[in-house]
Amino acid sequence: MSFSTKLTVILLSALLLSGCSQTNSPSLYQQLGGAAGIEAITDGLLHEIEHDHRIVHHFADTDIARFRRLLAEQLCDLSGGPCVYSGGTMQQSHTGFNISLADYDALVEGLIKVMQQQNISISAQNQLLALLAPMYKDISYR
Ligand code: HEM
Asked: What is the pLDDT of residue 20?
């Protein structure tokens, strides 16, 4: 077998194996505790925001029931759950708030605290944070 054929076989096997392990391992949605887990994370985060003097002012005029519903829906959708996010784009929703990096970090700090409290595995926490990180550019300084 030539070197390139061997390499192709190895790469294809790796692809197949990773595909198999993905089907057998729980989705991020499941690792977050499904619908109930995500609802608990959302409520926990709302509680953190409410008590965080660094960022709570941004939410002074927010319809909290709507924010709660859409945040839970977005986390469900992002993590591979059976939901389709129906809210505004991140850019639309955060325009006019001039959200800083410090504000973003404060919110993420609250999210991590809540996930810790709910015994979400570090791996699942990191997977969710990695999905949220690219949104920073749409959320901040708008
Ligand atoms: C990972 C980061 C974030 C995600 C995933 C996220 C997600 C969302 C979602 C889903 C909504 C509802 C959209 C809609 O109403 O259609 C929303 C609204 C909002 N977000 Fe964020 N957000 C993030 C970061 C932040 C940060 C850091 C702040 C400020 C500290 C913030 C402040 C707000 C405010 C004030 C609203 C309500 C806007 C309004 O009242 O119309 N968000 N966000």
From this structure: 47
The domain that contains 52 carries what CATH number? 1.10.490.10
Classify residue 79: in a domain, yes or no.
yes
Domain presence at residue 20: no
**Angle subtended at Cα 40 by Cα 68 and Cα 33, rounded to the nearest 5 degrees:** 120
Task: Tell me, using a 6 A CB cutoff, whether residue 54 lines ligand 1.
Answer: no
Domain extent, residue 37, equals 27-139
Ligand 1 near 99 CB (within 6 A): yes
Ligand 1, closest atom to CA 99? 29
Rounded average pLDDT per 10-residue block, the chain, 142 residues: 52 48 80 98 98 98 98 98 98 98 98 98 98 98 96
Can you give the pLDDT at residue 82?
98
Q: 93 C-alpha vs ligand 1 centroid, how far in Å?
A: 6
Query: Taking the model in full, what pTM does it have?
Result: 0.87
Measured by CA distance, the residue closest to atom 40 of ligand 1 is: 62
Total domains in the fold of the chain: 1
